[in-house]
Amino acid sequence: MLKRFAALALSIATPAFAQDAPQTVPVVLETTMGTITVALETQRAPITAGNFLRYVDEGRMDGTVFYRAMHLDWEPRPNGLIQGGTQFDPARILPPIAHEPTSVTGLTHARGALSMARHDPGSATGDFSILLQAQPSMDAGPNNPDPLGYAVFGTVVEGMDVVEAIHAAPRDPDKGEGWMKGEMLAEPVVIVRARRAQP
């Protein structure tokens, strides 16, 4: 009787525990340097993750590139980020989306975080970054360089070695403008295909 009660309690408790985990959608980025699998935060960052999923589902991310590798001389190393996406290609980009700050979503710029690239808040379209290490200064906060921060919408679950390899690829010292000069990859890494992971 005691065993049956314990089994019943476990069967009731397990689904409830599973429902506590935020919902995510896995997406595979097949690049010319390897595969990166990410989990998109469709529950905690529904606008931003939903936007990225639309780019994936409509094939707008296929054939785009990782074009930038920002290096930071901070420990732990390697440090910085890689950036890729549609680069304002009029044939690919969708309308800008509303900004979802980390102060609202509860997400943070941790190692492996996916974060939307933007100019002003509410201007993000189809470009994104992947962080090599935690960058709390990119979160929303009154003491950060940009108090509204950037929008985190997912995290790498497999393939950080590929992210690091892209980050380590040669950069062209003459490419890029302004403070991004010297951060552009000499040979951009192609995102051959972006797709939802098969269940």
TrEMBL record:
Keywords: Isomerase, Rotamase, Signal. Residues 30-196 form the PPIase cyclophilin-type domain. Residues 1-18 form the signal peptide. Its EC number is 5.2.1.8. GO terms for molecular function: peptidyl-prolyl cis-trans isomerase activity. PANTHER family: PEPTIDYL-PROLYL CIS-TRANS ISOMERASE CYP38, CHLOROPLASTIC. This is peptidylprolyl isomerase. It comes from Alteraurantiacibacter palmitatis.
